[in-house]
Amino acid sequence: MQPQPGDAELIGTILAGEREVYAVLVTRYQDTMVRHAAAMVGDRDAAADLVQDTFVKAYTRLDTCDPDRFAAWLFRILRNRCKDWLKNRRQQTAPLHDDAHAASERDDPGVELDRTELGRVVTAALMRLPPGQREAFLLKHVDGLSYEEMAERLDTGVSALKMRVMRAREALQEILKEVV
After folding, report:
1. Distance set, CA 14 to CA 23, 36, 77, 121 (Å)
2. How far, in Å, are 107, 127, 171 from residue 117 at the CA level?
3. Which fold has domain 1-90?
4. What is the per-residue pLDDT across 104-157, written as a single tens digit (0 to 9) for each?
5. Which pTM does this prediction carry?
6. Minimal CA–CA distance to 154: which of 77, 47, 55, 84?
7. Domain ranges of the chain
8. Is 47 exposed, middle or buried (0-12, 13-18, 19+ CB in 10 A)?
9. Does domain 105-180 have CATH number 2.30.29.30?
10. Cα dist. 80→26, 134, 168 in Å?
């Protein structure tokens, strides 16, 4: 099996005129970005739209990107899109459907209901955190990034991120104590 080309190589190919290669970068980062955006804004449909907007903006500005830092650059675009969306939250509409209520075929419906309810409680608790704390917590504990990787993506110091994650954990503990 041949190794996958790196981001910098793909960007060089795209900028040389092979625009269809951009699909490789989209495939490489889309799932992670949608998961992160959904956790940040609390709405999977909006998250998918934000990620799509991010990829469009990144494509149109690809020539301004440092190819060796593409992932961090792309993530910062998404981060800014999420922040803007949260600022304009009043303009949101209710989703037409909620897949969380659908029972899994392989699970006991009672177990699935408990899991869904727990997920709702945790999601609601996360949404009560300030966006900076929520983002740091998700990057560390959901995406599994190191503090150094987080610092690169967020263009912030490691010690500041450690403090955000610690404060997020403490706040979540307090919020969840209220619920339980």
Report:
1. 10, 26, 19, 43
2. 15, 15, 20
3. Rna Polymerase Sigma Factor; Chain: A (1.10.1740)
4. 445 556 556 556 677 778 788 888 889 889 989 989 988 888 999 999 888 889
5. 0.69
6. 77
7. 1-90, 105-180
8. buried
9. no
10. 18, 14, 20
